[in-house]
Write a structure and sequence with these properties.
- The chain has helices at 43-51, 58-79, 88-99, 104-107, 131-150, 179-190, 197-216, 220-225, 261-273, 301-322, 327-335, 338-351, 356-363, 370-374, 376-389; strands spanning 231-235, 241-248, 254-259.
- The chain is globular and about 70 Å long.
- Helix 10 (301-322) runs antiparallel to helix 11.
- The termini are far apart.
- The protein has 15 helices and 3 strands.
- The protein is mainly alpha-helical and 394 residues long.
C-alpha cells in the first residue's frame, strides 16, 4: 500500500504528474511491443487519446473524463499502482470504494460542493455514488478499457470478467422537489435583499435562472451553452405570435422549447436590469445567463451549480427555522442539485395534466422526427397547453 503520511491529495488529470513507477510505462497489463495503434506511452496520455474522441460533445467528454480520472487517481493514490497494472480483483475493490469513498477528506468535496478543477478544495467526488451512478461508471470504464485493448495499449480488460446485471428502471422519478419544497425555494429567492444595485442584479439573475430551469426543463449544460439569439418568435395559423427557445441537447440533438408569456416576462425583466432590449435580437450572442456585472461571457457549469446549491442551502435553513417538523424537507432540499429542477419541471407538468407527448418533446427525451420539422400544428398545440397549464407563479 502507498504511504499516505504526506497527505496525498488527488489532482485533476490535466494537473496530475505521476512518478515513473505509477505512470504506466511499465504497467503489467501493457500490450506487447508492435501492437500499439496510438502514440501514448503512459496512462494519462492513453486516457487523453480516448477522450479526444468525445471533445465535440462537452457533456459526454466531462462525464467520461470524470470516471477515468477517478479510477486513475484511486489506483495511484490508494493502491500505489498504475492504471495499466489493474487486475479484476482491483476492479471489485474499486466498486466497493464507489459506494463509500474514504477517507472523505481526500476524496469528497467539502459539503458536497462543486469547485473549479484548479481549486485547491476540488475533489473527485461529491459523495458516495448511487447504484445507478455506479452502473454508469462501470459502463464508461468498460468502454475505456475495451478501447485501450483495441488500440493495442493494454493486453486485456480487467472489467471483462464482471457480469454487470442490468437493473430494472426505477418505477418513478424521486429526485424532484414537491410542491411544499418548491414553494419554499421560490420564497427563499423572493426574500433576498435588493437594497443595492448589485443585490438587485443578484436577485433578478437568480429569479431568471430558476425560471429558466423550471419552465423550460433545461440541463445546466444547455443553459450555459445557449445564447439569447436562440429565442425566436413566429405566428401560428391564428396569427398569434409565440416565442420559442431553440436548444441543442444531449448528442447534439436540437429541440424547440415553448417560451411562455411568463418566461418572456422574466427574460425582459432580467434584460432591462442589464441595460439590454426587453427581447433578444436575432443572432444575439450574449449567453442566457451572465455573470454579475453583466459581462457577456459564458458561465461555467460549476459556477451555475454553485449558485443553485446556495439557494437550496438557504432554503434548508428556512425549513430548520420552522422547527423539527420540517427536518425532512430541510434534509431533502440539501440533497438537491440543479438537475432536480429539470425533474421537478417534468413531474409538475405531468401532474398538471400536460400531454405526455408534449412533456417528452419539451424535455427532449425522444428526438423529434423529420416530419415534425414541417408540421407546426402539434408544436402550436404544445405551446398553448404549456402556456395554460405550466406556470412558475412568482
Amino acid at each position: 500500500m502507498p504511504d499516505h503520511s504526506q497527505a496525498v491529495v488527488p489532482a485533476a488529470i490535466e494537473a496530475l504528474h505521476l512518478p515513473a513507477h505509477l505512470d504506466g510505462r511499465a504497467g503489467s497489463n501493457r500490450a506487447g511491443a508492435g501492437r500499439a495503434q496510438i502514440g501514448a506511452d503512459n496512462d494519462i496520455d492513453a486516457i487523453k487519446a480516448w477522450l479526444a474522441r468525445f471533445v465535440d460533445t462537452r457533456t459526454t467528454f466531462d462525464s467520461y473524463r470524470k470516471e477515468a480520472e477517478r479510477l486513475l487517481l484511486w489506483a495511484t493514490v490508494e493502491l500505489g499502482k498504475p492504471l495499466s497494472s489493474l487486475v479484476h480483483e482491483d476492479w471489485l475493490r474499486y466498486r466497493g470504494f464507489l459506494q463509500d469513498p474514504q477517507p472523505a477528506a481526500r476524496w469528497i468535496s467539502p459539503a458536497g460542493r462543486k469547485f473549479a478543477r484548479a481549486h485547491p478544495q476540488w475533489r473527485p467526488f461529491a459523495g458516495p455514488l448511487s447504484p445507478s451512478s455506479q452502473r454508469q461508471a462501470a459502463i464508461i470504464l468498460n468502454a475505456l478499457f475495451s478501447w485501450l485493448v483495441q488500440a493495442g495499449y493494454l493486453a486485456g480488460n480487467p472489467l471483462a470478467l464482471s457480469r454487470e446485471r442490468k437493473q430494472r428502471a426505477a418505477p418513478r422519478i424521486t429526485r424532484y422537489l414537491d410542491d411544499t419544497v418548491w414553494a419554499e425555494v421560490k420564497a427563499t429567492i423572493e426574500a433576498l435583499p435588493r437594497a443595492t444595485p448589485r443585490e438587485q442584479e443578484h436577485y433578478l439573475r437568480l429569479r431568471w435562472l430558476f425560471t429558466l430551469l423550471y419552465l423550460c426543463g433545461l440541463r445546466v449544460s444547455e443553459v450555459i451553452g445557449t445564447t439569447m439569439g436562440a429565442f425566436f418568435a413566429r405566428r401560428d395559423k391564428l396569427g398569434v405570435q409565440r416565442w420559442w427557445l431553440e436548444v441543442v441537447g444531449k448528442g447534439g440533438k436540437p429541440r424547440m422549447v415553448p417560451a411562455t408569456a411568463e418566461l418572456m416576462t422574466e427574460l425582459a425583466r432580467y434584460r432591462r436590469a442589464l441595460g439590454m432590449t426587453p427581447f433578444p435580437l436575432p443572432h444575439e450572442t450574449a449567453p442566457l445567463l451572465l455573470p454579475l456585472g453583466g459581462k457577456a461571457r459564458q458561465m461555467t457549469r460549476g459556477g451555475v451549480h454553485e449558485i443553485v446549491k446556495r439557494v437550496f442551502e438557504q432554503t434548508a435553513a428556512r425549513f430548520h427555522a420552522k422547527g423539527d417538523d420540517y427536518a425532512t424537507e430541510a434534509a431533502r432540499v440539501m440533497l438537491a442539485s440543479a438537475h432536480w429542477l429539470r425533474h421537478t419541471a417534468g413531474s409538475h407538468m405531468v401532474n398538471g395534466d400536460v400531454d405526455l407527448r408534449h412533456v417528452r418533446d419539451t424535455l427532449g427525451h425522444v428526438s423529434i422526427g423529420t416530419t415534425n420539422t414541417y408540421l407546426h400544428s402539434p408544436d402550436d398545440s404544445r405551446h398553448t397547453e404549456t402556456e395554460a397549464r405550466h406556470k412558475i407563479a412568482w
